[in-house]
């Protein structure tokens, strides 16, 4: 079993979000939901993170930051898009300045719908991401063995 | 050095990380309970480190791993000397060298966050080092020896004779354990002005080394705390030192972070007020040597 499942550290970035989903996301850390009981820690540092949680519809300014943060995360890693805007652009979809969805700039693994996404849905999304993370870890281990051989 | 102390020293090398991880796990649960949360499982720090070993390590410069191994190596030396019952001063110097290696690792990575973090860490070293030397000096004046094996068999009154030094030591323990209000070089919590301070640019195996080093460090500091009460015997001294050790968690959760200048000022004031005063009055309240 991979220990990634027992200790997923998340990185949170608001890519042109209205902060609705961000508040719900941070609510997961409060005593009511307390995700630390699952070993989840909110790191402010991409180099320590395993799961990238992105909210918002992404514009040109935040695209650079999102790509930079993603590139700095060490493998294995997963991306979770949170909220209607992160999924498809939401109500901002037709605005000229947004990309309309995180998957326009990053490979997204889990989509969490909602406007704003509820804390329960976000936790469920992270838990689903753990399964993908474990598969990635196995794949990464295989790759390392191949490089050594 | 008897066979017993050799076993103790080897026990530190082998079981040190496990004890340190349990201390860290209890710390996290206590913190969570104080914030009316459930908190992570007891072995969460172990899971964290085992996970970090599974992750890729992003190497900024190869020097960083070298320095981190130095950090861990001198930490082991420091604890080995302490638990062998050997020279307390030598253990202290090894602990300091180990701290300097951590600063070097942070400096070598060139990130502005870790640079400021290690500058602050050096500042904190300046803040706690005088007090730590005074602890060793106090033990010497009371028991007539720097050897840990002699201090352990010292007079049962040494806690009272060294009361001021104990208070000063508990104060700098907060700095050594990186607890609030002195967590300004590397906080346990990511969201702060320095991201993660000295460990910002360390990932994967390198970060795991830092964690394991900290586990050893916590056991060493608990050992130092134990020395004050050691003449009373294991059954009394160990519970007292563990309770005092976890009192730091309460301090951590009830204080806001200080700036480096006030941290330095406050800790030197405490050092002078409690440490130096204690050393000055020590001849008056009598010592065994």
Automatic annotation (TrEMBL), chain A:
<keyword id="KW-0004">4Fe-4S</keyword>
<dbReference type="InterPro" id="IPR006137">
    <property type="entry name" value="NADH_UbQ_OxRdtase-like_20kDa"/>
</dbReference>
<dbReference type="Pfam" id="PF01058">
    <property type="entry name" value="Oxidored_q6"/>
</dbReference>
<dbReference type="GO" id="GO:0046872">
    <property type="term" value="F:metal ion binding"/>
</dbReference>
<feature type="domain" description="NADH:ubiquinone oxidoreductase-like 20kDa subunit">
    <location>
        <begin position="18"/>
        <end position="128"/>
    </location>
</feature>
<protein>
    <submittedName>
        <fullName>Energy-conserving hydrogenase (Ferredoxin), subunit C</fullName>
    </submittedName>
</protein>
<dbReference type="GO" id="GO:0051539">
    <property type="term" value="F:4 iron, 4 sulfur cluster binding"/>
</dbReference>
<keyword id="KW-0408">Iron</keyword>
<keyword id="KW-0479">Metal-binding</keyword>
<keyword id="KW-0411">Iron-sulfur</keyword>
<comment type="similarity">
    <text>Belongs to the complex I 20 kDa subunit family.</text>
</comment>
<dbReference type="InterPro" id="IPR052375">
    <property type="entry name" value="Complex_I_20kDa-like"/>
</dbReference>
From TrEMBL, chain B:
<feature type="transmembrane region" description="Helical">
    <location>
        <begin position="155"/>
        <end position="175"/>
    </location>
</feature>
<keyword id="KW-0472">Membrane</keyword>
<dbReference type="InterPro" id="IPR001694">
    <property type="entry name" value="NADH_UbQ_OxRdtase_su1/FPO"/>
</dbReference>
<feature type="transmembrane region" description="Helical">
    <location>
        <begin position="66"/>
        <end position="84"/>
    </location>
</feature>
<keyword id="KW-0812">Transmembrane</keyword>
<feature type="transmembrane region" description="Helical">
    <location>
        <begin position="90"/>
        <end position="110"/>
    </location>
</feature>
<dbReference type="Pfam" id="PF00146">
    <property type="entry name" value="NADHdh"/>
</dbReference>
<dbReference type="InterPro" id="IPR052561">
    <property type="entry name" value="ComplexI_Subunit1"/>
</dbReference>
<protein>
    <submittedName>
        <fullName>Energy-conserving hydrogenase (Ferredoxin), subunit B</fullName>
    </submittedName>
</protein>
<keyword id="KW-1133">Transmembrane helix</keyword>
<feature type="transmembrane region" description="Helical">
    <location>
        <begin position="122"/>
        <end position="143"/>
    </location>
</feature>
<feature type="transmembrane region" description="Helical">
    <location>
        <begin position="6"/>
        <end position="26"/>
    </location>
</feature>
<dbReference type="GO" id="GO:0005886">
    <property type="term" value="C:plasma membrane"/>
</dbReference>
<feature type="transmembrane region" description="Helical">
    <location>
        <begin position="224"/>
        <end position="246"/>
    </location>
</feature>
<feature type="transmembrane region" description="Helical">
    <location>
        <begin position="266"/>
        <end position="285"/>
    </location>
</feature>
């Amino acid at each position: 079993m991979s220990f990634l499942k027992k200790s997923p550290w998340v990185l949170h970035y608001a890519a042109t979000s209205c902060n609705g989903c961000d508040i719900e996301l941070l609510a997961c850390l409060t005593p009511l939901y307390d995700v630390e009981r699952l070993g989840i820690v909110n790191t402010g540092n991409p180099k320590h993170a395993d799961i990238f949680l992105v909210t918002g519809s992404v514009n040109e300014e935040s695209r650079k930051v999102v790509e930079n943060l993603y590139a700095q995360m060490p493998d294995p890693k997963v991306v979770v898009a949170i909220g209607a805007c992160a999924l498809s652009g939401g109500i901002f979809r037709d605005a000229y300045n947004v990309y309309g969805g995180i998957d326009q700039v990053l490979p997204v693994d889990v989509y969490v719908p909602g406007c704003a996404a509820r804390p329960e849905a976000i936790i469920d999304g992270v838990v689903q991401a753990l399964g993908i993370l474990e598969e990635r870890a196995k794949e990464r281990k295989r790759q390392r063995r191949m490089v050594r051989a | 050095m008897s066979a017993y102390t050799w076993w103790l020293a080897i026990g530190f090398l082998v079981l040190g990380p496990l004890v340190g991880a349990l201390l860290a796990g209890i710390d996290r649960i206590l913190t969570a309970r104080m914030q009316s949360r459930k908190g992570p499982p007891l072995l969460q720090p172990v899971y964290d480190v085992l996970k970090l070993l599974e992750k890729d390590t992003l190497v900024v410069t190869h020097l960083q791993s070298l320095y981190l191994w130095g950090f861990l190596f001198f930490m082991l030396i420091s604890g080995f000397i302490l638990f062998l019952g050997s020279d307390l001063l030598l253990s202290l110097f090894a602990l300091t060298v180990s701290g300097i290696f951590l600063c070097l690792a942070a400096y070598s990575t060139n990130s502005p966050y870790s640079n400021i973090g290690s500058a602050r860490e050096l500042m904190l070293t300046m803040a706690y080092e005088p007090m730590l030397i005074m602890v060793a000096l106090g033990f010497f004046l009371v028991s007539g020896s720097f050897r840990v094996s002699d201090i352990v068999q010292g007079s049962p009154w040494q806690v009272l004779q060294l009361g001021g030094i104990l208070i000063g030591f508990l104060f700098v323990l907060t700095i050594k354990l990186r607890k609030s209000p002195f967590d300004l070089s590397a906080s346990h919590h990511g969201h702060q002005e320095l991201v993660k301070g000295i460990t910002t640019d360390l990932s994967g195996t390198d970060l795991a080394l830092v964690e394991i080093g900290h586990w050893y460090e916590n056991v060493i500091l608990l050992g130092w705390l134990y020395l004050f009460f050691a003449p009373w015997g294991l059954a009394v001294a160990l519970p007292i030192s563990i309770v005092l050790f976890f009192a730091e968690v309460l301090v951590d959760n009830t204080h806001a972070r200080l700036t480096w200048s006030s941290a330095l000022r406050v800790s030197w004031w405490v050092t002078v007020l409690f440490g130096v005063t204690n050393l000055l009055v020590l001849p008056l309240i009598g010592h065994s040597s």
